[in-house]
Structure formats: C-alpha cells, structure tokens
C-alpha cells in the first residue's frame, strides 16, 4: 500500500511537471524574458559601467556570478504568478474532481521553474564566455557550482510557491516578489561592498546573497571562499525547509476551504 501510494504521488507530480514543462515551450515568452533580461543587465554593466568600476580583476569575471543569481531570481519569481493564476483561475478546483493529488500542482511548478532556470542559466554562461568571461574551475568546482545553484533554485522556487498561495491576484504576486529580486543589487554582485556607505555595507555583507555570490565567485574563479559556502548552505537550506513547510500548510488549508 505504501509503495502504491508513493508511486501515485510520484506519478501525479510528474504529470503536473510535464504540464509546466510544456508551458515553457508552448509559451516561450517567460523563458525568453528569463534569458534576455539578465543578458541585457550583464552587457550593460560590462560595457557601460565596467570601465568605471574597479574590482581588481576583469569586470566581466567579477559580475557574472551576480548576473547568474539575478537570472535565477527572475526566473523563479514567475512561479508566484503562475501559482496565483492556478489557484484563482479554477484549476485547483478542477484537480479536486480528478484522480490527481492536488499538491502535485506545487511540485509541477517547482520542477518546471527549475528546468526553466537551468536552461536560462546555461545560455547566460555561454553568452558570458563569448564576451570574455574566463572561469578556471575544474570538474569538482563545476559540480560545486551546480550544487549551490540547485539549492538556490529550489529554495527560491518553494518561496515563490508560498507567495503564490498567499496572494489573491497576479498583480499582488508580482509585487510581492520584488524585495527578493532587489537583494542582489545590494550585495557584492555588481560592486565590492567596501565601496558602499558604512550603514549599507553592513547590510550588504550580512544578507544571504553576498555569501552565495562569493561562493560562486570562488568556485568559478578561485577567489577565497572562507566560510561563505557554509553560510550559503545555512541561508538557503533553511529557506528551502521553511518555505516547503509553510507552502504545505497553506496548501492543506486551501484544500479544506
């Protein structure tokens, strides 16, 4: 019985994941935006601002980890809008009358968002290399990059699922994602935090995006990582667990309404 229940849970999750994956390619606007916006930001910072920003290295090498984080954040934020649309547009009610596990809806959005982010991130890495990015990571370092980015993606995906379950309209869901999308700009993503005013420097050094970016920078370019890797795991591992638990509770409440 347990094995049968697990099988159907996995099967339902895969069904809703396929739905999300089909939307990526049938309605490619979200994928194009998830790729195009970070590329535009990267090109602008490298060719417009890069010459005026001193980082001790080629600016394109410095800025790429921050651009990747911005890419993932924007791609994941689309999940909040999609979940809100499904919860307010009648899909959730239809799932109740079908032989599908309703919570598979959340799993589908998380998996679909992960695949969209993986595609966008790969394209941005390739564009970065074309404009001069020169990573010196070995196999183990690239595996570390994949692991760190996967943790970041899943934690944000579940966070934005939670936001989508809370908000009552697409406009509200879109606005609610803004604070998380803004965080990379107040970190070491685009400029060294030492150049910021003292009050802003303290925030930039102690918010979760900075250790994440410094970890990626260390893995890709060989810069010192220090305790940033452990801070990254603590920040985003904790966010993943908390977001998953809250999303599950919120979803169960919606089932009882």
Automatic annotation (TrEMBL):
It is a multi-pass membrane protein. The keyword Transmembrane helix applies. Its main location: membrane. The chain crosses the membrane at residues 31-50, 62-84, 105-133, 139-161, 229-251. Keywords: Cell membrane, Membrane, Transmembrane, Transmembrane helix, Transport. InterPro entries: ABC2_TM (IPR013525), ABC2_TM_bact-type (IPR047817), ABC_2_transport (IPR000412), Nod_factor_ABC_transporter (IPR051784). It is found in: Cell membrane; Membrane. Belongs to the ABC-2 integral membrane protein family. This is Transport permease protein. It comes from Virgibacillus natechei.
